[in-house]
Amino acid sequence: MIKIAVIGYGVVGSGTVEVFYKNLDSIEKKIGDKIDIKYILDLRDFTGTPYDEKFIKTFDPIINDDEISIVAEVIGGIEPAYRYVKSLLEAGKSVVTSNKELVAEKGAELLRIARDKKVNFFFEASVGGGIPIIRPLHHCLSANEINEIAGILNGTTNFILTKMINEGMAFNDALALAQKLGYAERDPSADIEGYDACRKICILASLAFGKHIYPKDVHIEGISSITAEDVQYCDDFGGRIKLIGWASKRDDKAIVMVCPAFISDFSQLASVNDVFNAILVRGDATGDVMFYGKGAGKLPTASAVVADIIMAAKMSDSSKSLYWEDSEQAFVLDRKLLDSKFYLRLICKNKVEALKQAEELWGSLKLLHREGEADNEVAFVTESINEYKFEQDCALILKSAEIKGKIRVLDY
Ligand code: HSE
Fold it and tell me: Which terminus of the chain is more solvent-facing, meaning fewer CB atoms within 10 Å of its CB: N or C?
C-alpha cells in the first residue's frame, strides 16, 4: 500500500482529492498497487467532508511519517511551499506540485535534490492546467532539439481578452467574471500583468533548453493597458490580441518574453479562446506541434496533479529526462536585440506631420481604421524593426503625437 499526503485543500487540493477518490479503482490498476491519502494538510477547518479524519494542521506528521512516500504540494507561492518541498525531497519523498512560482524560482535546485535522493519532483500541473505538456516535452519530443516555444499560457487573460473581443465587455467586468469562475490567481495582477505566464514560459524554456531561466531575467508586459480601440484596430488588421509567452534559443543563449501581441486570424493561436491555453513547440524533427486544452480550473489542474502521483508511484528512481541545470543571468539575452513589427495608435498634434515622420522612421506603414476613430487619431503596423531602435524612435515621435497604444505583431 502506497501512502500519500496532500498539502493544501484549496481549489486544486480539493480537486486533487476528488479526482483521486473518484477514479481510485483505475488509478490502482495503472499503478499496480493499492494507494491511499493518509493526510490532508490545511490550516483551515473542514468538517462534513468524507475525509474529515485525514485533516491535519501541521507539517510534522507528514515529514516524520516513513509510510508517506509521495506528497502533493498544492498551496502555491514560495513560502512555506519551498521549505516543505525541499525538506520532503531531502527526506527521500517524491513531490508533485501545481506550484509554478516554486518551479520557476527553485526548479533547478529542487530537481537536483530529487536526483541526489533518487526520488521525483514532478510538476505537470504547473503549466497549462490539464494540458499534457511537461511530460510530452521531455519524453515524446525528446529526440528533438527544441529551439522555440510560444503559447497562450494564462487562462484568465485569455478569458478577459476573449470577452473584450467577442462581447465588447469592459476589462474590469471580464476580470470579475474570471475571478468568480475560479480562474484568476488570488492576486489577479499575477495574471493580468503577465507574471503567471512568465513563470510558465520559464518552466517550459528551462526544460526545453536545459538551463534554468529565472522570471527576473524575462521582459514582461501585461494586458491591463489594452483598450477597446486596440481590439478594434486589431480586427481591421485581421487578427486578435493574445497574451503570448515566448522563448527562443539563439546559439547557447535564450530570448524569453511575455507580451500582448497582434496574432493573425490565420494563426492557430488566434482561435484559442476563453480559458483555453495552447502551446506551440517547434522541434527540429517534428516541426510545429500544438498542445491545446483547459489551462486553468479545479478539475483540469487536479487531473495533472493526480497523473503525477500515478507516475511517481510507478517510478523506482528519479526521472533522468525531467531535469535542467542552474544558470546565470547571462543565459537570457536582452530582448532589444530582436526585430519586431509593432502596432501603434497615436493621437496627433498634426496628423499629416506625424504620419510623415512615422514613415521616415519605420518605412512603409500598414494603416488601420476603426469605426468612430477621432480626426486626430492614426493607427498602423510598422515594418520589422530592431526593438532598441524602435524605442529610440518612439521618443522622437512624441514631439508630434501621443502614443496611446503600442503592441507587438507576432508571426505564429
Ligand atoms: N490563474 C491561472 C490562469 C491559473 O488563469 O491560467 C492556472 O495557472
Answer: N
Atom of ligand 1 minimally distant from the CA of 183: 5
pTM of the model: 0.96
CB 105 within 8 A of CB 113: no
Instruction: Summarize pLDDT for 306-337 with one digit per residue, the tens.
Output: 999 999 999 999 999 999 999 987 899 999 99
161, 163, 186, 196: residue to mutate for ligand 1 pocket, most atoms within 8 A of CB? 196
Compute the distance from residue 261 Cα to the ligand 1 centre, in Å.
Answer: 19
CA dist., res. 370 & res. 365, Å (int): 16
- Which of 87, 96, 89 minimizes the C-alpha distance to 35? 96
Nearest residue to 121 (alpha-carbon basis) of 71, 80, 74, 76? 71
C-alpha cell at 232: 478594434
Closest atom, ligand 1, to C-alpha of 295? 6
Q: Any catalytic annotation for residue 3? A: no
The Cβ of residue 189 has, within 10 Å, a number of other Cβ atoms equal to: 13
Residues in the chain: 412
Residue nearest atom 4 of ligand 1, based on CA coordinates: 296
pLDDT value of position 196: 95
> Could you report the per-residue pLDDT of 209-249, keeping only the tens digit for each?
999 999 999 999 999 999 999 999 999 999 999 999 999 99
C-alpha to C-alpha distance for 210 and 361, rounded to whole angstroms: 39
- Taking residue 99's Cβ as centre, other Cβ atoms within 10 Å add up to 27
Alpha carbon distance 262, 231 (integer Å): 9
Q: Using an 8 Å Cβ cutoff, are 321 and 142 in contact?
A: yes
Single-letter code of the amino acid located at 330: A
Report the candidate in 263, 264, 268, 288 with the shortest Cα–Cα distance to residue 278: 268
Of 93, 200, 249, 341, which is the active-site residue? 200
* Location of C-alpha cell 521549505: 83
